[in-house]
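protien #1 (seq + structre)
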Amino acid sequence: MDTTFDPWAAGFVADPYPAYAALRDKGRVHWFEGSRQHLVPHFADVSALLRDRRLGRTYLHRFTHEEFGRTAPPHEHEPFHVLNGNGLLDLEAPDHTRIRRLVSKAFTPRTVDRLRPTVARLAAELVDDLLADGGGDLLARVAEPLPVAVIAEMLGIPAPDRHLLRPWSAAICGMFELNPDDETARRAVTASVEFSAYLRGLIAERRRHPGDDLVSALIAAHDEGERLSEQEMISTCVLLLNAGHEATVNTTVNGWCTLFRHPEQLAALRAGDISLSTAVEELLRYDTPLQMFERWVLDDIRIGDVTVPRGSEVALLFGSANRDPARFAKPDRLDLTRADNPHITFGAGIHYCLGAPLARLELTASFGELLRRAPGMNLVREPEWQPGYVIRGLKELLVTV
């Protein structure tokens, strides 16, 4: 059993949990030369640091690159950084506070609740097709299309254009991996330019002809004279797509892979002996789709007996925190009935995932549909993992029904 933290090794990506256990045993914070980050593996520390305003997703609200001891990104990467830097995920107060307040006016619990019949219909249609073919790749046939279709429906993107979304999103998300190479950056920049241009046209159309969709609601959202700028709207829509499907896709396929490896619990779930919503929370904890979340250190912080200086970057290991025995009883055991389950898969603090209720709705719908209508669904062969570590998922999940 390899306990080396190596996010570029296929064996580590396939099973990072022994390495996490070794990190937790060795201490509260560890310098990792490979990405020049301080790794934080414990639940209590990760949870506290997510809420600590001495850390930030960006530092540009307080420092220039030079003041912070960092080099500005290459000029040719600017389209990606403009797009990413104006979204909620990479902003801090006061801009984050203002934008989240305005977006929350459009992305309300009622918005999500209104999508419930749409999510149920889309899940049923996708499972219909899978059953008609006797099975196939669960990733491509159900896990990916469902959240993309839901976000597209919510944004009001016309059906003929929806095939563009997943490739754009995948290209942009490549930049969130550790040390992305030049080709990854080039694809992300191209996708950023194309996606932004598409959304600019869609926003212009909704200004002329408002509809019952989120883009129209974002245009209309205002508070004491404040409105979202066009760039903020574009960045918000891209973030909703990227964040709104990556976690859902990987929780679906990773979750089913986990269930196939625990046949007794899968049988109990199929029999209705276990609450589906409780089971979904455990699958979100057990094999976390987003393994790492990064933060810049804006002011010196102390973690245990280590001082992490301003200008450093910390890597909060969500996958490790969700398996920490100091917080979860028998954390390496899948327990679909686990009631005490405060996992941090959706984050915490001001950056807590705005789309968490929608993700839960989608996961419950797709798992529920497959459990009910494909009671004999089985794995065809052992799946392979994508090379990415931060956003961790399978290449495919071939099943028979």
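ok now protien #2
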Amino acid sequence: MAAHPDLAFDPWDPAFVADPYPAYAELRARGRVLYYEPSDQWLVPHHADVSALLRDRRLGRSYQHRFSHEDFGRTPPPPEHEPFHVLNDHGMLDLEPPDHTRIRRLVSKAFTPRTVERLGPYVHGLANELVSALVEAGGGDLLAEVAEPLPVAVIAEMLGIPEPDRAQLRPWSADICGMYELSPSEETAAKAVRASVEFSEYLRELIAARRKEPGEDLISGLIAAHDEGDRLTEQEMISTAVLLLNAGHEATVNATVNGWWALFRNPDQLAALRADHSLIPSAVEELMRYDTPLQLFERWVLDEIEIDGTTIPRGAEIAMLFGSANHDPEVFSAPERLDLTRRDNPHISFSAGIHYCIGAPLARIELAASMAALLERAPALALAGEPERKPGFVIRGLRGLSVEIP
């Protein structure tokens, strides 16, 4: 096993987290797959490999559809973490076929392009309201005032969560998502378990209410969705709702603030965007590529694979580095340059294969709506202070983004 103890890759080092891209360039130069002992993972930094492995059925988000923990050489999670794993393991993100295929097919019946399109006016109206309030205040924290409330409200509206209940969604989501970092602490796990229990209980009651009185919302749609007599179980509905909320706003919140922070650091690109709002669609794609909200995605090796002459055994874990793949010069010309006019942009920020993000069309609408509202209503928006990065590496974001409107 070829370990590389001198790698610049260090997901627990704040300096690395602040700017991992130079270390990624070093990883790509070192090879196509590198073993990283601290996390016991095989790092895959190249775009072509990440893209191919996301579609490779010899890898899985889970192994439990084929192996027990013991058979796979892994330690079962502690019993006290069970509420988190019950919630997580029944969602599409951590399931493999045939369960993944069945659930995604049923969810797609409720989460249609038409449903997303119908939300367009609501998303744009809300983005304008939030930005207007920011303008009136002369500035503030772009994360707390615009980036966060927009996708949380949209997914809550979509799910049919009453307005008075929405304040607790973001804290629940943040606590659950703490478990997706590398080697989460016991404190992080305890918070995730508590949030899993509370969120599940809340949704169980909401589902019961919608069974009695169905509405036009996604929860009602999930209850009604059936295929040849097949329906979602209550746990699958709960796990789907939580996944849609977590994935449906974590990425959008972080893409928004990472994106504006990148624009402030590249004033020529911001000026070009201000001069030509028709650049918004390509700007959204380029900002998601340039500073990727989800940096690493894990897969289990279900059947031995070989990458560039290196055999990776069954039971190993692969860490696909999305941030590195999105900066691969083999695919992107001048990848370190922010270029809002970039046309050829096959970034993998929404993943690929059977786990391609089901909410990608909605995320694009939200990102474009908040960007348009800020460009139109706050054309002189300026940075009011250096932001602080969140300590996590996997989910990449800022603690806040302080702005002023002169």
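The first helix runs from residue 14 to 18.
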